[in-house]
């Protein structure tokens, strides 16, 4: 233990105040005033209001930082607020009232800015032979107050240096040069920089010494011993700084963690997009393959058809050649037979019967030809009549009746055809309308799937154009319908409320800041639609008074989107304050002007309205809310209905077209029937009778002729020859017909082959995949190739239709998942903005699938591994290092506090607290054991649990590291949010509770225990306060260090310490400070001077002149006693002794 042996008559150790100079400070005006303690303990006295506190506050300004600077500490709270640096610079001395305005204004000695102020304190260490002057020079430059903080390692006396006074007043640009010419000096722009330098030079331990200096000025009582030791005797070792360093490293890790979370979140939402996208790609590829196959069909089957044409044409050409050869043979045979027949005919004609038979043969031939023609005509006519539903006539009268019936049927068929034309047109129009409706619904569905609200596509597109033109987001100009929905519990009322608020739901809300731009855009743009928007002013007061339980407002929910929600709440109250009821009595009454029934009847005073038009009913027309699932379902149902209507209309149109074709065929049939003008062309009955008569005559003549044998033989030969000729001619005719058919077929085949060769001149190309499941056999004839092509096309079209249906389903699912990825709800605030910015360029459309796939690939193969690696690196190599540093810092600070208490106890041990028996004070520090959840002990336990250990770092276990990060994150975030708690728990001084024990020197037994200063008498409190304060000052001033050649600060100001203390304790305090080698400046009224007289060497007497200015005299005790007898004359202006006269500037 180091015993202190500083009697109050001993030499003066450490740095002690020699001279204090003030110029233009408070009421010390236009003169340089000096206080000259010259290292001794002195007393500053004078009447109240003379300027003692002004001198003290000059020292406070020089020696304490602005954050701990408290002026006029000896006065009450109101008086403290009256004193500021500005009031001291201006020389405020009171207040006055303007006679005209009655305004109270401060009275000052130095109005304006044309002056400067100077404060300087010179300290000297006699043993080290060192002198240090601290000065503050203030002046106004361009209307702004500028303060220069100066340190000079020598004595500077402004009162004795006229040149420096002139430079400071008139030539502020040269004073530095002047001071530098006298030796070293340093200038600083802030108190903190300056204080750090002179604390080091004066031997001050820490900033806490400056705080103690300020505290001792106005110390009256100790208060809580625990808090005094913690706050005034111990320094804050910087736990906050260590936390901030750790938190900055943690924030870097947190940023990477958020990136990692975002990447994982995006991958989760992108996985369904990838799965559905794969199906979409497969179906799209299948459709492309089918399209390729369909495009290739004509060429593939054209080549097959060309091959079969070539083969068949070759065969027909061979048939044609064989036919020509046979024709030549027949011609030769006929040429040989004809002369023989001619001879036989001449022989038979030589008889009369033969001539008549020849005539009959000619007539019969003509009759047979007419009969054949008329019978064929009659058969054709009968077939036409039968097909027309008419009877075949057998007489001229029946023919006329049939013709008249045909004419009537023709008129009816023409009328029916016109009717069918009208029906075809009507069904075609219905089909077109259904198709347009289907396409419109499909567009609405696509738009709804890309959003979450129920606003129609036309209105969202109108808003989108506006947002793009003004660089706004849709969230900045919402529709009322996007912010409003019917509560689920009130679903029964939704149809009626939707009808009532359908129009308002499609109105936009525009903030005041964007209103001018929106107005300009709307004026200059053809919107191609109707737009209503409201200007919304932030902070608009709500006008929602008392509402009934059945009020419309209670059935609605407003989205939490300020400031729109407040405006909308007020708007609904003002304009849609409807009561919802199905009570007929209320509906028929007159007390409630605004009523709404669940069926949609709206009563507005005397006006009643109910709109049940088809276009106004159903979920398909809902616009309120932010969940469009029900509307999507309604639209999909309506889409199915429109598809069915389109199909039904198409089928009906086709039926009427078929009917029309039937009618046209009937009219053509009737026209052919009516083309026969007379019955004669059909009368085969008369011709048949004429033929029978001729045949009968021929038979009689033949009988007569047969009686002639020669003639009979000639006739037999002629008959055989003619039969042979007929056979040959018949065969020739058949061959001629066959030849014509062959020539036509060859021409047709050649033309087809020529066309196919022109269309497909090259060699056959490979058959594309997917054209057919199994290749059909080579066609035997061209028509079979066409049949095979038609069958292949039907199969491909069927497959295309099936795939198209699947593709539409995949597109819908894909679009929905893309929209969910672009705007997931909810998103963590940490990366919501970044997510939306990254996804702003992505579209919820299949065309953007490649962008989603690239995003997924980048996330999975680049970003996620990179973020995982960065997270592991920052956690194990950066944050945990700062964690361990933070732990070490707190542990070291805790040890430092313990060590400081030990050093303070060494100082206290040198002080006799009581003499009978001899005792000393010993500080005691115990760990805080508060049981509160937010108490220090609980937080220390949380710190210990959250901060990982060194083994975790060595193990490099990522799962344990992430778990540790989770605990650390919770703790750090909570500490960062709650500054009060953070300052409390990270200040290790709060980990300990401080008390004091009074210990007997001889026995080391504890005599008294002081947990705080409560419960003690005023004298006991004062004595304990002086003892602890003296030890604290000695500790912070480095006054405990052994040896006299160590730098230590020794100056203390005590302002009116004895005003509330008894003489015994005051004497104890003065002896205690003297024993510790401290230089005191005691500030006290004149009535307390006798108590302090044994301890002081001179006085500083402050007086206030009639001009409201202050002056200070430096007097010895003897001079003061001489002046005391003539105090009245001195107050009246008796000259002061020569050594006390001030120097006028």
Automatic annotation (TrEMBL):
GO biological process assignments: DNA synthesis involved in DNA repair; double-strand break repair
Keyword Lyase: no
Region listing for Disordered, in residue ranges: 1126-1145
Record-linked Gene3D superfamilies: P-loop containing nucleotide triphosphate hydrolases
Coiled-coil annotated residue ranges, if any: 350-384, 646-673, 704-745
Superkingdom of this protein's organism: Bacteria
Keywords: Coiled coil
InterPro entries tied to this protein: P-loop_NTPase (IPR027417)
Name of the protein: ATP-binding protein
Species per Swiss-Prot/TrEMBL record: Hymenobacter gummosus
């Amino acid at each position: 233990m180091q015993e202190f042996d500083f009697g109050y008559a001993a030499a003066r150790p450490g740095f002690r105040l020699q001279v204090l100079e003030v110029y233009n400070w408070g009421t010390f005006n236009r003169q340089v005033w000096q206080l000259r303690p010259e290292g001794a303990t002195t007393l500053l006295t004078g009447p109240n209001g003379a300027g003692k506190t002004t001198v003290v506050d000059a020292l406070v300004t020089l020696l304490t930082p602005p954050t701990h600077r408290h002026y006029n500490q000896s006065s009450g709270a109101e008086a403290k607020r009256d004193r500021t640096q500005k009031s001291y610079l201006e020389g405020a001395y009171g207040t006055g009232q303007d006679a005209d305005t009655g305004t109270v204004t401060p009275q000052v000695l130095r109005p304006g800015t044309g002056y400067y102020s100077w404060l300087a304190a010179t300290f000297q260490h006699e043993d080290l032979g060192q002198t240090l002057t601290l000065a503050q020079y203030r002046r106004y430059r361009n209307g702004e107050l500028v303060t220069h903080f100066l340190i000079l390692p020598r004595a500077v006396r402004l009162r004795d240096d006229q040149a420096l006074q002139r430079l400071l007043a008139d030539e502020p640009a040269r004073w530095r040069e002047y001071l530098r010419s006298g030796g070293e000096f340093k200038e600083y722009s802030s108190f903190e920089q300056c204080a750090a330098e002179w604390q080091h030079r004066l031997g001050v331990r820490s900033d806490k010494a400056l705080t103690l200096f300020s505290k001792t000025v106005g110390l009256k009582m100790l208060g809580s011993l625990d808090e005094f030791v913690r706050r005034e005797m111990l320094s804050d070792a910087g736990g906050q700084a260590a936390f901030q360093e750790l938190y900055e490293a943690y924030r870097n890790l947190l940023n990477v963690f958020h990136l990692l979370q975002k990447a994982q979140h995006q991958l989760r939402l992108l996985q369904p997009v990838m799965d559905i996208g794969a199906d979409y790609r497969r179906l799209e590829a299948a459709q492309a393959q089918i399209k390729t196959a369909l495009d290739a069909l004509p060429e593939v089957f054209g080549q097959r058809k060309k091959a079969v044409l070539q083969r068949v044409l070759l065969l027909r050409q061979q048939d044609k050649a064989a036919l020509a050869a046979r024709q030549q043979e027949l011609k030769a045979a006929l040429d040989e037979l004809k002369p023989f027949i001619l001879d036989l005919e001449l022989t038979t004609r030589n008889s009369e019967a033969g001539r008549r038979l020849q005539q009959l043969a000619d007539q019969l031939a003509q009759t047979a030809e007419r009969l054949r023609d008329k019978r064929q005509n009659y058969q054709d006519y009968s077939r036409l009549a039968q097909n027309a539903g008419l009877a075949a006539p057998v007489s001229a009268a029946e023919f006329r009746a049939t013709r008249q019936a045909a004419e009537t049927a023709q008129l009816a068929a023409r009328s029916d055809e016109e009717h069918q034309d009208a029906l075809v047109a009507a069904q075609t129009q219905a089909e077109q309308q259904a198709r347009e409706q289907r396409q419109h619904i499909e567009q609405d569905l696509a738009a709804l799937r890309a959003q979450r609200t129920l606003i129609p596509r036309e209105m969202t597109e109108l808003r989108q154009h506006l947002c793009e033109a003004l660089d706004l987001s849709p969230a900045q100009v919402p529709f009322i319908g996007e912010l409003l929905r019917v509560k689920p519990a009130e679903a029964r009322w939704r149809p009626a409320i939707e009808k009532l608020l359908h129009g308002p739901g499609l109105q936009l809300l525009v903030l005041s800041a964007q209103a001018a731009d929106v107005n300009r855009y709307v004026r200059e743009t053809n919107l191609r639609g109707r737009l209503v928007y409201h200007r919304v002013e932030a902070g608009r007061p709500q006008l929602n008074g008392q509402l009934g339980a059945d009020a419309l407002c209670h059935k609605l929910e407003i989205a939490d989107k300020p400031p729109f929600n407040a405006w909308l709440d007020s708007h609904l109250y003002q304009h849609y304050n409807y009561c919802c009821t199905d009570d007929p009595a209320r509906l028929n009454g007159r007390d409630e002007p605004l009523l709404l029934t669940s069926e949609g009847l709206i009563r507005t005073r005397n006006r009643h309205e109910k709109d049940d038009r088809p276009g106004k009913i159903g979920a398909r027309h809902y616009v309120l809310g932010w969940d469009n699932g029900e509307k999507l379902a309604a639209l999909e149902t309506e889409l199915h209905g429109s598809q069915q209507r389109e199909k039904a209309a198409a089928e009906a149109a086709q039926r009427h077209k078929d009917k029309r074709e039937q009618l046209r065929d009937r009219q053509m049939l009737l026209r052919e029937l009516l083309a026969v003008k007379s019955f004669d062309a059909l009368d085969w009955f008369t011709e048949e009778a004429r033929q029978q008569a001729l045949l009968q005559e021929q038979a009689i003549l033949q009988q007569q002729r047969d009686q002639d044998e020669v003639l009979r033989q000639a006739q037999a030969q002629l008959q055989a020859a003619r039969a042979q000729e007929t056979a040959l001619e018949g065969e020739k005719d058949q061959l001629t017909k066959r030849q014509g058919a062959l020539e036509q077929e060859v021409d047709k085949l050649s033309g087809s082959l020529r066309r196919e060769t022109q269309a497909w001149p090259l060699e056959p190309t490979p058959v594309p995949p997917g054209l057919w499941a199994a290749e059909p056999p080579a066609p035997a004839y061209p028509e079979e190739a066409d049949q095979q092509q038609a069958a292949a096309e039907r199969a491909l079209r069927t497959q295309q239709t099936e795939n198209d249906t699947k593709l539409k389903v995949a597109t819908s699912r894909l679009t929905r998942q893309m929209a969910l990825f672009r705007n997931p709800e909810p998103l963590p605030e940490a990366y919501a903005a970044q997510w939306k910015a990254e996804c702003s360029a992505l579209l919820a459309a299949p065309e953007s699938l490649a962008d989603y796939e690239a995003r997924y690939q980048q996330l999975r193969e680049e970003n996620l591994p990179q973020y995982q690696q960065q997270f592991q690196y920052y956690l194990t190599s950066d944050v945990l290092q700062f964690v361990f540093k933070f732990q070490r810092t707190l542990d070291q600070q805790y040890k430092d506090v313990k060590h400081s208490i030990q050093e303070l106890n060494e100082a206290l041990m040198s002080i006799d607290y009581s003499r009978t028996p001899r005792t000393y004070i010993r500080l005691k520090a115990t760990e805080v054991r508060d049981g509160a959840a937010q108490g220090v002990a609980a937080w220390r336990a949380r710190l210990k649990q959250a901060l990982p250990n060194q083994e975790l770092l060595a193990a490099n276990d990522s799962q344990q590291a992430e778990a540790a990060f989770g605990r650390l994150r919770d703790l750090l975030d909570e500490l960062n949010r709650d500054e009060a708690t953070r300052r409390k728990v990270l200040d290790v001084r709060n980990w300990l509770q401080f008390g004091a024990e009074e210990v007997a020197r001889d026995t080391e037994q504890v005599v008294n225990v002081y947990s705080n200063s409560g419960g003690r008498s005023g004298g006991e409190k004062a004595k304990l306060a002086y003892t602890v304060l003296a030890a604290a000052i000695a500790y912070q001033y480095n006054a405990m260090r052994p040896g006299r050649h160590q730098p230590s600060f020794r100056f203390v100001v005590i302002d009116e310490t004895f005003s509330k203390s008894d003489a015994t304790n005051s004497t104890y305090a003065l002896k205690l400070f003297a024993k510790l080698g401290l230089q005191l400046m005691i500030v006290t009224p004149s009535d307390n001077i006798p108590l302090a007289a044994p301890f002081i060497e001179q006085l500083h007497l402050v007086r206030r002149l009639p001009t409201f200015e202050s002056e200070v005299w430096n007097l010895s005790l003897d001079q003061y006693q001489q002046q005391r007898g003539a105090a009245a004359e001195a107050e009246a202006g008796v000259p002061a002794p020569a050594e006390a006269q001030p120097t006028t500037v």
